[in-house]
Amino acid sequence: MSTYTYSAGPGMLPKEVMQEIQQHLLTFEYDGISIIETSHRSESFQHVVDSLEARLRRLMHIPENYAVLWLQGGATLQFSMIPMNLRNQNRFAYVDTGVWSKKAMEDAKHFGQVDVIHPLIDEAGGMSFEPSLVQDVDYLHVTLNNTIEGTRFTNLPETTVPIIADASSNILAEHIDVERFGVIYAGAQKNIGPAGLTVIIIRRDLIQSKELPSYLDYASHVDTLFNTPSTLSMYAAERVLKWVEDQGGVEAMERLNREKSEAVYSFLEQSNVFSPLVSGERRSLTNIPFTTGDHGRDLSFQQFAIERGLLELGGHRSVGGLRASLYNAMPREGAERLVDVMRAFEEEND
Ligand code: PMP
């Protein structure tokens, strides 16, 4: 019986990629030493960096007027690096779509005034915002996919200011039109690779040195490895991105993610025991919160699932209930298995 983890992150990685990493762990390329021991300034590691960036550029169609940076500190460090680097008038707009967007705006408040914009929900349950509310600010920040609440933007109107997107839980999982954004950032640990790596895709004209401490200044990182990066995570990410390309790219991933989430949602829609917590078009493709409506029964289901090899189905502590994260590396069978186990629980408990 296969074991699956529905964790919101770190999430599953493709098994064949992990096996490849295991095989190459002791002798990486021609140096005869491990990737862990390889200097980030070596020629062989430079190949990894170049290939990682080239793959991401191909997969996301990133034009040359955007720089790609590989930093540490998680998406969380970007909550402060963004306002620090992009401030001019020291006023920013944030669409408040959940826990992570709130954390982003709390950090931004250290650097200026934050205008809070509430999302618009249309009749079909799509999520958007009112662009006329975005005025006299340095940028507008959106969380494209809300990992905890299981929602996503379905429409982003044009604004007069750069849009900054937290894409931590949907990067490479669905199409993102890079040129709509000033900055896209994401922690790697859901769809890119192991934890310890954060990617920042930034329009070059937005990088203007603000005399910040060196690591915190985007300008330090453009087209160079400024300091020792997370080498093992970068190597693993390069292999994961090769896997994504081999699978057919972001388009194929999005198709698979739609199929997986539809399989789970269509079960939840007709279940007598479980119900989804989000309705309408804003449903995330990657994070599905649901519940039995009873805390004790949610916990019993989690235990029932663990006994059948399905791990990490607990909801985030802020919303409770249950949650299944179905990132790129979760195979179709993982979504089907979850439905089978929910059905078995329902038969025992209905
Ligand atoms: N933003 C979103 C949308 C997230 O899901 C997360 C992590 N789950 C974060 C930010 C924080 O990321 P990190 O742990 O890499 O700082």
Description:
GO terms for molecular function: O-phospho-L-serine:2-oxoglutarate aminotransferase activity. The modification N6-(pyridoxal phosphate)lysine is found at residue 190. InterPro entries: Aminotrans_V_dom, Aminotrans_V_PyrdxlP_BS, Pser_aminoTfrase, PyrdxlP-dep_Trfase, PyrdxlP-dep_Trfase_major, PyrdxlP-dep_Trfase_small. By secondary structure, this protein is α/β, with parallel strands linked by helices. The protein folds into two domains: 15-247, Type I PLP-dependent aspartate aminotransferase-like (Major domain) (Aspartate Aminotransferase, domain 2); 248-349, Aspartate Aminotransferase, domain 1 (Alpha-Beta Complex), CATH 3.90.1150.10. The chain is built from eight helices and 16 strands. It has helices at 15-24, 43-60, 74-86, 99-108, 231-247, 249-270, 295-306, 332-349; strands spanning 4-5, 66-71, 91-95, 113-117, 120-121, 127-128, 140-143, 145-146, 151-152, 163-166, 183-187, 198-203, 275-276, 287-291, 310-311, 322-325. A seven-stranded mixed sheet has the order 2-12-11-10-7-3-4, with helices on one face. The chain has a three-stranded antiparallel sheet with strand order 13-14-16. A two-stranded parallel sheet has the order 1-15. Helix 6 runs parallel beside helix 8. The longest helix has 22 residues, at 249-270. It is globular, with a radius of gyration of 21 Å. The model has no long low-confidence stretch (mean pLDDT 96). The structure holds 4'-deoxy-4'-aminopyridoxal-5'-phosphate. 4'-deoxy-4'-aminopyridoxal-5'-phosphate is lined by residues 8-9, 74-76, 100, 143, 147, 166, 168-169, 187.
